[in-house]
Amino acid sequence: MSNGLDPSTFDPSIRVQDDLFRYVNGPWLREAPIKPDRATAGGFIDLVDEAEELVRTIVERCAADPQDDEERKIGDLFTSFMDTDRIEQLGAAPLADDLAKIDAVTSVPALVRTIGALERSGVNSIAGLYIAPDRGRPDRYVTHVVQAGIGLPDESYYREDQFAEIREAYRAHIATMLSLAGFDEADQRADRALDIETRIASHHWDRVACRDAQKTYNLMTLDQLDALTPSFDWRAWADEAGIAHEVLAEAVVSQPSYLEGVQTLLTDDLLPAWLDWLRWQLVHAAAPFLSDDFVAANFEFYGKTLQGTDELRPRWKRGIGFVEGSMGEAVGKIYVRTEYPAEAKSRMEELIANLLEAYRISIRKLPWMSDETKQRALDKLDAFTPKIGHPESFKDYSALETDPGDLVGNARRAQSVAMDRELAKIGKPIDRDEWYMTPQTVNAYYNPTMNEIVFPAAILQPPFFDARADDAVNYGAIGSVIGHEIGHGFDDQGSQYDGTGALSNWWTDDDRAAFDALAAKIIAQYDDLSPANADGQKVNGALTIGENIGDLGGLGIAYLAFKLAQEGKPTESIDGFTPDQRFFLAWARAWQGKSRPAETLRRLTVDPHSPPEFRCNQVVRNIEAFYEAFDVTPDDELWLDPAERVTIWA
């Protein structure tokens, strides 16, 4: 059996009672470099890099020796991305036809139609469209319409003083890209494009509002959508985009006031600015597939300025990303043949079963919840669907046509095929076998409208999962991830969905009030936290509350499941650490991570996850078992007064 932990990597100069995160990860935090083509480093990133190397072997083999038509297409995509001579020769030429469409626009209605015509090219539009189960009736698919139209990470970047330098760099970047595309007066055009984006952003909902499952559920008919946006002809837009009107017969509009506001900008006097905005959106969307001058300029802003990354990722890595974005499940089908051992699934099934049982035990004992709501929570828990490793059937890419000499064409055809696959869902039964991540993705997720927890094959390896390690390590790491994803079904938003996946209030008023009071205490805890390299900027407790509840419940429930798994087993120490101590040490190692200062700032603004150090330390401050495992006292830094500790689900 693997020990799963290496104490020689810990920092003996730090007391675990003062800083669990740095006790486990201190030497790594000081010494491990962030790779020059990365904005972050850590356990997740290491696994991503390993998966990327494995996928590279798959893709290069498909390019050199395809065994069937699907593998030939994988090879064509990669070959077209790596054909730098042809890409340099073409320069901006692949954009000529679409730029001519924009040049021909002379009215607002023509602008709307042209935005539709570019929908299949991956160009950022005024509104985004996707197909998903209906939160009100999760037995059917419905179209969702969301705010869009901006190129900076968040609406706050357009208005807050702390982002003034980024805004100026962004304006210069737009000018550079338009100049590379052959436009004169690039500075003036950039000013106009940024002005339109700033006006668009002024109507955007902030990140906290966009998390609200109730506020963002606004079911409208096409006639109601037209009435909301009289300046935007949805039927004309759909005709140009190749979208049947039936797709828009009903739609969930996530931010109605955004659409209502942005359509007031569609006026004749602003038309020249809109055209420059659309030219910029077109160039930006195509930049990764154009010549090196476009790629370098794109990286200069989005990589260096926004994330602080030193170097552009090697071309082969970007090529792998392109292939995975275009035919991810075709690659995944090959990946799981060799990279997903059978014992991983059986061990995961055991872990998940114990985590679900731990939730049952915890829910039955909750002191703040009534029996009526407890039963409904248990009903939802019983309806959970776990998915492990990979889908039972993989996506069909037979409709995709590829050409080893046509990178931009390949990108657009892949986008169009993916779009048609999504649009075809309207009117069809829910596909409960569908996955929203590929098997080679290092991540996991909870899907509220399916009430499912999903764990791709690539995350089922150390430091998260080790089939040879003892229970303490696996429950502290992957067990907490499992508990976290289950916990999303009971966080501030997931708890508003019932076991069928419907947005339905299954709470008594008193129980919901009690839950909200506990959540408010967690928000307050995190609002006070600022990571080391953030120049004083603090965590947004309201933005991160869902993930923080997931972390807190995930670790607490994982500990309870660990104790269930330990019943009747010996409890000897390993390397001087008790099983309970190893559980928390594994938790800390799982969150090993750091980021560049610019990336830290960006994530504090837009990321619903707290920084790694707080995902580790702030959570354990609320877990009684941590205090007992390491004899934490009021004199220790991680001590939190018992009256301030929050327990929701465990």
Automatic annotation (TrEMBL):
Transmembrane segments: none annotated. PROSITE patterns: NEPRILYSIN (PS51885). Pfam families: Peptidase_M13, Peptidase_M13_N. The keyword Protease applies. Residues 17-391 form the Peptidase M13 N-terminal domain. Keywords: Hydrolase, Metal-binding, Metalloprotease, Protease, Zinc. Residues 443-646 form the Peptidase M13 C-terminal domain. Its cofactor is Zn(2+). Belongs to the peptidase M13 family. This is Peptidase M13.
